[in-house]
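Most newcomers find our protein records easier to grasp once they have seen one. To make this concrete, we reproduce a full record directly below:

===
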Amino acid sequence: MASFHQQSVMRSRKQRRCDWCGELIEIGQPYESYRWADGGDVGTVRMHPECLAAMDKAAKGNGGELVWTPGDFKRGGI
């Protein structure tokens, strides 16, 4: 099971892609990020705030775990 660390809210200093919806996070837009670790794998996830809220809702509805790839969902949607 994965563990999650260091959730933070930032303003983007460069264009990034949201790991939930795949849309751009433009310069100056807020985004939320967190680090995760699962066995030997680690990574950072960056999302629009509304996408992180949608992911949290979807994970809770799925027993706490959820697997997705960027662009699987619309911005802020499940």
Summary: DSSP finds one helix and five strands in the chain. The first helix runs from residue 49 to 61. The CA atoms of residues 10 and 59 lie 23 Å apart. The chain has a mean pLDDT of 88.
